[in-house]
Write a structure and sequence with these properties.
It comes from Duganella violaceipulchra. This is UDP-N-acetylmuramate--alanine ligase. The protein has seven helices and five strands. By secondary structure, the protein is an alpha+beta fold. Strands 1-2-5-4-3 form a five-stranded mixed beta sheet. Helix 1 crosses helix 2 and helix 1 packs across helix 3. Helices cover 46% and strands 15% of the residues. The protein is globular, with a radius of gyration of 19 Å.
């Protein structure tokens, strides 16, 4: 590609990333849906080549920018609440080796975001019975395996906790061996309860007002 074409591709990719970030922050779309909708908004019905679409890291960076510009007065407290609830839930689910993922972990969680967990157990039924015995109403769906499309989807249980949505993807115990990995940018893809507690302590030190409910 010529320098002009490369520059045009980079600009379009940045524009799609910014539009996707707005859809995520304003409407609660997931990254893939936001990326596709943003591409249609900008390109119309033209099918974009794969190299034109931004990756999730670029979109996440734009979400952070959007939150800092438009939700700086509310987003930190929202994030603190969700992380606090996540620790509470993870403590109750300690027998299933809970890990936190998604926007609540990476710090971009806004008003539309739920808590996303990964649990590891001998069987999905074991987790379902555990939740039902605690009088939680659960919905069951499927989530792509974190190891990629070569692995089958995993069962996911969703329930409400203190008026917040929780989605827990249920993995086999053997999957724990591949669970603790970093992303390409060095950040954790998932965090155990100790790591989430550290995030809470650090955010309280940075923003003392968040310690007040």
């Amino acid at each position: 590609m010529t320098p002009n074409v490369i520059e045009e591709v980079l600009l379009l990719r940045a524009e799609i990333a910014a539009a996707a970030a707005r859809l995520i922050a304003q409407d609660g779309l997931d990254y893939n849906a936001a990326k596709r909708k943003a591409a249609r908004q900008i390109l119309g019905d033209t099918q974009p080549p794969p190299n034109l679409l931004p990756d999730n890291a670029q979109i996440e960076a734009e979400v952070r920018i959007y939150q800092s510009l438009f939700h700086a007065d509310t987003q930190p407290a929202r994030l603190f609440r969700l992380r606090t609830l996540a620790v509470d839930i993870m403590d109750g689910l300690a027998a299933f080796h809970p890990y936190l993922t998604g926007a609540v972990l990476n710090g971009t969680a806004g008003p539309h975001d739920d808590i996303h967990l990964q649990l590891f157990a001998d069987s999905a039924k074991e987790v379902e019975i555990f939740l039902l015995n605690r009088n939680l109403q659960i919905d069951i769906s499927e989530t792509p395996h974190f190891k990629g499309p070569r692995h089958g989807s995993v069962e996911t249980v969703s329930f409400m906790w203190h008026k917040e949505g929780v989605h827990a993807a249920l993995y086999e115990l053997d999957d724990l061996r591949g669970a603790v990995k970093t992303r390409g940018d060095g950040k954790l893809m998932r965090a155990d309860i100790a790591a989430v507690r550290t995030l809470l302590v650090n955010s309280t030190h940075e923003n003392p007002d968040q310690a007040q409910p």
